[in-house]
Write a structure and sequence with these properties.
29% of the residues lie in helices and 33% in strands. The chain contains 4 helices and 16 strands.
């Protein structure tokens, strides 16, 4: 049997987790890109709630309860998609910090035919709809290239998505390295937002842009960059170090 001290300790841990969760929830910000979507979603949720209450009435209370629950969870999901969690960012002069939340799905040498026209080390992060979708600059530098490419909407983990999907590529350069960052649309993501301006100096972890509803971010690094992650690792934007150079 558990002692009273062990029970108190377990309860303390649960209370601490709840307080941490509640604090993060109440202080979390919503990204500006999400305001129109959230407003439209709120309108449709309210409309569906009104229609269901009108046609169902008090005859099917359980059915109405289920509908209400589904609508609330759907609204909360949409709101959470545009969340900006409070984070203490990691800064490193010789480090590439992850520009996206998600899972590392590619670490390999590839030939880049868009900008470098040579072999590069590619590290790719897949972002599911449940991830935070703010993208951040992985390093300090100057934006020397920025180009939008229309394209397909293959699933983001498909290797062909890097070159065939809708995407926006930018190149950052500083005294130590030149890196290409590619925002890639997925099967659900149909809008890429990119804030980069050619000639502009940017800071590591500042906002690069936003991709709506599931996507992927590729980084093309120098071949001598040393990966600090492995395939399958979960990473967070502004915190996880992907590579060192």
């Amino acid at each position: 049997m558990e002692s009273s001290c062990e029970k108190k300790e377990d309860q303390y841990i649960k209370d601490l987790r709840f307080v941490t969760f509640a604090t993060n929830l109440t202080t979390m910000r919503i990204h500006k890109e999400g305001i129109p979507t959230i407003v439209i979603t709120l309108f449709f949720v309210a409309l569906l709630r009104y229609l269901s209450a009108t046609f169902i009435g008090n005859n099917w209370v359980i059915v109405q309860y289920v509908i209400d629950t589904v609508l609330v969870f759907f609204l909360l999901f949409i709101v959470s998609f545009f969340r900006i969690p409070n984070r203490t960012f990691h800064y490193g002069e010789n480090e590439i910090v992850s520009p996206a939340d998600g899972k590392v799905v590619v670490i390999e040498e590839v030939f880049d035919d868009e900008y470098f026209h040579e072999k590069r080390l590619q590290i790719s992060v897949f972002m599911s709809p449940a991830n935070v979708h703010v993208n951040r600059y992985p390093m300090n530098g100057s934006v020397i290239y920025s180009k939008y490419h229309p394209g397909k909407y293959l699933v983001a983990w498909d290797p062909k998505s890097s070159t065939e999907n809708e995407r926006h590529s930018i190149v950052l350069k500083n005294s130590k390295a030149t890196v290409l960052v590619k925002q890639i649309a997925g099967a659900l993501a149909r809008r890429i937002v990119n804030y980069a301006e050619v000639g502009k100096e940017v800071k590591q972890n500042a906002e690069l842009g936003f991709i709506k509803f599931g996507s992927r971010v590729d980084l093309l690094l120098p071949l001598d960059a040393k990966p600090e992650v492995k395939i399958g690792d979960s990473v967070k934007n502004g915190i996880s170090v992907l590579a060192k150079y």
